[in-house]
Amino acid sequence: MRFFIDTNIPMYATGTEHAYRDPCRKVIKAIAAESLDAVTDAEVFQEILCRYLYINRRETGLQVFDRFHTLMEGKVMPVTMREVNMAREMVNVYPALSPRDLIHLAVMVHHRITHIISTDRVFDTVPTITRVDPATF
Question: Cβ distance 31 to 67 under 8 Å?
């Protein structure tokens, strides 16, 4: 089974002490060991940069970006106008999802990925996908 890896996984895995840090590290280790069939999308990397630059933690953000990029080499789905238009079509269907989450969902739908590893419970509102909480991974 293929899993989409949400932005919060590499961020919690490399962050300060938090209840999700060790579970997210376990997910990252499974990807590195190739025991988890994992993909992500280009938007995840934009989110990493956006968040860390916004909170003025440029160097940390670049490190998280670079490490996750190396880990996910060859496993990053593009975001094209097809996915952007699909996200637009889903705005009213899934009003709880942010624009970024709608992009991730569109990528998942386009590539027939039905599972996402994420701490973000908003994905539980999408009946066509299954969110796996890293704490239960």
Answer: no
87 band by pLDDT with thresholds 50, 70 and 90: very high
CA distance 35 to 56: 35
Longest dimension (CA), the chain: 39
What rounded mean pLDDT belongs to the chain? 97
Local confidence band at 41 (pLDDT 50, 70, 90 cut-offs): very high
- For residues 45 and 51, is the Cβ–Cβ distance under 8 A? no
- The rounded distance, in Å, linking the Cα atoms of 52 and 127 is 31
CA pair distance 44, 118, nearest whole angstrom: 12
Helix or strand holding residue 3 (H, E) = strand 2-5
The predicted model scores a pTM of 0.97
CA dist list (Å): 64 to 12, 13, 68, 106: 10, 9, 6, 24
Q: How many CA atoms lie within 13 A of 88 on its CB side?
A: 6
Sign of the Cα torsion 28, 31, 35, 41 reads positive
